[in-house]
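Predict fold of Small ribosomal subunit protein bS1; 619 aa.
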Amino acid sequence: MAENQENVKNEEFDWEAFETKGFGEGYSKAKREELAKMYDNVATDLDEQEVVKGIVVAINDRDVVLNIGYKSDGLVPTNEFRDMPDLKVGDEVEVYVEEREDKNGELVLSRRKAKIVGAWDKIQSALDNDEIIEGLVKRRTKGGLIVDVHGVEAFLPGSQIDVKPIRDFDVFVGKKMEVKVVKINYSNDNVVVSHKVLIEKDLEKQKAEILNNLEKGQVLEGVIKNMTNFGVFIDLGGVDGLLHITDISWGRINHPEEVLKLDEKVKVVVLDFDEGKKRISLGMKQLTSHPWDSLAEGLDVGSKVKGKIVNVADYGAFLEIAPGVEGLIHVSEMSWSQHLRNPQDFINVGDELEAVVLTLDKEERKMSLGIKQLTEDPWNKKEVLTKYAVGTEHKGVVRNMTNFGLFIELEEGIDGLVHVSDLSWTKKIKHPSEFVKVGEELNVVVLELDVENRRLALGHKQLEENPWDTFETVFTVGSKHKCTVLSKNEKGAILELPYGIEGFAATKHLKKADDSMAEVGESLEFQVLEFSKDDKRIVLSHLHTHSKVEEAAPKKKATGGGKKKSTPKPQASSSTLGDLDALSALKSQMEDDAKGGAKKKAAPKKAEEKKEDEDKKED
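Predicted 3D structure, encoded as C-alpha cells:
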C-alpha cells in the first residue's frame, strides 16, 4: 500500500524543472528584478570605525539585533540601551562599527562608542559655534566639579562656577547646569567648561545700568561676597564695592568678621566711585549719626569717665568711652613719675579704666585724658617738707644718667639729682655708670629741697664722714708711703695710696735708684710733695726717697774730715696698706702734739745744740 502511494508522488513531481541548469533560471523575470533591487540596497562596502544608523529588528534579554543595511545584522548588548527604556522594534539608533567581521564572521557594533564619538562632535560644534549645552554634575573634585556632557566627563573649575566665590561645591552635585565649552584637549581627552561666562553676560547689562544710575550718597543693598583684614567686598548686583574696615563701624574693630558675616545682606551708602576703573567705595557707619553728636551734655574738662583700652602705642593709649568716642591718654599723664616708660608696661588692650578729661574739642572730635590726676600730686602733699627735709636719708632707684650726675626716684613723682662729685669722697668718677647702674638702688641724703621748682639735690658720699680731714694728718708733706702704680701717661702716673685714695707723680719723680723708671703694677715707696684737701690732690715722688742720701754723703766728708759720721736727721714716719690702725694712731698723735705746744718743738733744738758742742770738743 505504501509503495503504491510513493510511486504516485514521484510521478507527479516535475523532474524537468528540477533538473534545469543555471542559477536563477527558475525565477520569473519580475521576480528576478525584485531580488536584484533588494540586493542592490545591501551595503557591500562598509567602513570600520564610523558611526552609522541602524534599525532595531529584534530585542531579547541579552542583545538588541540591528539592521544597518549590511549583508548581516549586528548584535549590541542590551545594557548599552539603559538610557532608552522604551526601546522597541523598528526604532532607529546610531551605532559604531567596530569590525565588519570578527573571527566568527559576525558584524561587531557598539552604541556606547557611537555615543562618545557623537558627543565629541557635538562638543567641538558647541565650541566652534559658541553654543550653550546642558550637563549633569556627577561629583566634586579637587578645585571644581565633574560634569557629564553628552557622555563625556568635563571639568568645571571652581572659579568658573559663579561670579562670586563658592565655598561649598557639594550643593551642585546631582543637578543639571548649563555650561559653555572653553577648551578641548584631544590628547588627554580633556574638556573644560564654564558656567560663569553665562552669568557674566547677563551681569554686564546690570553693571551698565547700576553705574549709570550710581550717585554719591545713594543707599544700596548688597551681599558680602569676600572678606579681608582691611575690609569686605560687597556684590551690588553685578558690581562689586569695597567697604573699608574703617567705614564699617564708628568704633574700633580689628577685623570685619567681628561684626559681619559672609553672604550676609547689608545696606551701604556710596561714598565715592570711579566710572573708568569701576571702583566703588562704600560705607556702613555713615548710615547712623556720629556718636560724638550724642555725648552727654555734662561732659567737660575735669569730668571723670570710664572706658576700655582699645589700642596701646609707644606714646600712649586710647580709651574708648563709647563706640566711636576715644580719648588719648599720653604716657606723661599715666604717672606722676617724670621718667616716661612704655605704656605697655602697665596698660593692656581690653583693660577697663577710669580717667579724667583734660582737654575736649567736640568740633575736632578730640579728647585727651589722664590717669595720674585721680591721685594727689606727691609734691603737693603736706608731709613733703618734713619727709624730705635737708639731712634726711632715703633709698631710691636709679632711673636715668647724664654726664654730670644721675636721677633717683625716691617715690612715684619725687625725683632727685645726685651730682657726680657727690658719689664718692676718694674716687675720681668721670661718669656715674662707673659707680652704679640704671635700675639699681642707692642710699642717699637730702642736700637741698626746693618744693616750688620741684627740685631735690641728693648726695651719696655725705652718708660718711669726709676722710680727707683725717688724710690731712696722715699724708703730711714729707711723709713716705708705699704706693702702687695704677697707670702712666706722658705727664706722669696715677698712684694708689693707702686707704684706697689716689695720688699723682710726675714722670721725673718715677726714677728709681738704678736710673730705671717705675712701671705699672710696681709697688714702691713714695714721698708726699704736696697735699690739698680742698682739691683732693696729693702729689708724690719716688725720686726723693733715694736722692737725699746721695747728696748728703759728700757734704759730710768735707765738714767732718771723715773721722766721725754725723747723725742723720729723723725722717717722717711712713705707713703701708697693711697698717689698718695707722690712721687713728697718727690722728691721736697729732692731737697730742697740738696740746704739747712749744715744749715738743724745743726738744729738737736742744739736741742739735748738744751735738754741736760735742763736735767742737772733738776738733
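The radius of gyration is 59 Å.
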